[in-house]
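User: My advisor, Dr. K., asked me to get a structural model of this assembly before our group meeting. I'm new to this, so sorry if the format is off. These are the inputs:
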Amino acid sequence: MTGEFGLIDRFFKQRQTQRKDVQLGIGDDCAIVKVPEQVRLAISTDTMVSGTHFLPETDPAWIAHKALVSNLSDLAAMGATPAWCTLALTLPETDSVWLSRFCDAFFELASYYNIQLIGGDTTRGPLSITLTVHGFVPEAQALTRNGAKVGDWIYVTGTLGDSKAGLELILSAEQTLDDVSRELEKRHYFATPRILAGQSLLKQASAAIDISDGLISDIQHILTGSGVGASIDVSRLPISEALRQYVGGDMVKAQQYALTSGEEYELCFTIPDENKGSLVSALSHCNTPLTCIGQIRSQGQWELHHEGNPLLWELAGYDHFQQEK
Amino acid sequence: MTGEFGLIDRFFKQRQTQRKDVQLGIGDDCAIVKVPEQVRLAISTDTMVSGTHFLPETDPAWIAHKALVSNLSDLAAMGATPAWCTLALTLPETDSVWLSRFCDAFFELASYYNIQLIGGDTTRGPLSITLTVHGFVPEAQALTRNGAKVGDWIYVTGTLGDSKAGLELILSAEQTLDDVSRELEKRHYFATPRILAGQSLLKQASAAIDISDGLISDIQHILTGSGVGASIDVSRLPISEALRQYVGGDMVKAQQYALTSGEEYELCFTIPDENKGSLVSALSHCNTPLTCIGQIRSQGQWELHHEGNPLLWELAGYDHFQQEK
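Assistant: The format is fine. Below is the predicted structure of the whole assembly, which you can bring to the meeting.
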């Protein structure tokens, strides 16, 4: 667990969230932690690589935020409460300005979600960040992808499509500094992991996933895992005012963005009909927008429609975006 | 937890060790596992980067072995019993031959140590492997770096110096295929994580660490953590017959290798005088060679000697090797 750079003491031991269940944190061969009785441990790993997931010159604070959010979002999708994480950081050189900005942002967000960094490895090489996160879920209550039933309602949190638009703006040569562009760019790097919503869905939802590859791609995991189909009304996809302005009011384009935008870190989940009434009150303390976008159908049934009218553009759009990935 | 390549199903779901404490393995946003009551969880992360930790053309089976061993060794150094791991694999391209060889070796070794792969992320980028391992330790019994006391005896497992010699052979332009070279090269990639020895040391040792950066560097972590010094007799360092032949019988050179060779994955540990008698029998089932190389002294006292005679070469040698790192 020691790194080549000897940076661990300087940057990673300081300003830490101190959880009582961490018996031994950074600085030994392993961390030692205590898992409460009658909970299960949820564990996930995500890597972000320079040039693949972010541009090399990206602000290290943004990289730290995106890396932690993408991992916290996996915990949110299980309804888990964040507990601890390990960080494997590969850097081309020792750059204390870079590290300082990275760590400031990392620890601020980690502290907000009460997740403690308990170990890591700093190595020399092409810039990449691998986080492994750990959280708690009540016994036999985790939100999986496998529980959706025919007739369940399909919901998403927040708005969809912004992250893709933000990424386009970041990658475009033109520097745009208007409010709409800034909002979309911010949405790409500073998404909100839906931790509170996920926890509140534990007793409500039949299945859940976070939107990391794009709604149309991620929802397939629920459909495959649960052995069901789905019908989605694209006119109900939640579109932000910023995205509406970005596409110049072209709602077909906005809906295509909403279907295919990755790294949204919103939740997509299914709700049995009998829970539909209690859903809004169960999530009222989260301040998380919820939108019903469709319903679970029998296996093999899969349709996108617009207020009941079949869509002609959907499959072409879908394939096109799949190839882009 | 989904990857860009869609390789997870094909390569990582198959041929898995199936542990009963894994409620949900690969394939959802998180894995869900159960931690037994009255144990603590030991967690560690290590990264290996192509060009830094291995040559790009290295046999993927060797890479898999080295990556898993370096992580298992961290569990061994805490006296932990392996349970689960996650694997973040970054690859420049989808290469099913490479993946197949990597996975065959990975799963064979994982199965031997009863550690189950419960999640991962495959991403596109420069070749690197990050593993996060989880193991169990009895409550309040983990082997840390902080418990060494003045008078404790300092031990190491196995032999030291082979890994450094093996790496030199691997990096040298000359292809040497004699038995000695093969043995040393194998030792570099196929070290034995001292899991059984670590477990057996739980009630015996006052402190422990695994030798990943070199004995002289790693033992400093015990001395600093415990607030003590040490006296080491270099004539007692365990040298393999292969290393003896490699250095042409030059025992000073062999001892310098033993002091500075990294990636040995042997354990260095301290034993209170009252446990010295029971140590050999406590570890008799492990078939692990043990050598007493010195004794813990008061803080500030640090000496390398040769059968009681002070060494003149030691500090120069130490600094030299430190600079090479």
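One thing worth pointing out at the meeting: Confidence is low (pLDDT under 50) at residues 314-325 of chain A.

User: Perfect, thanks a lot.
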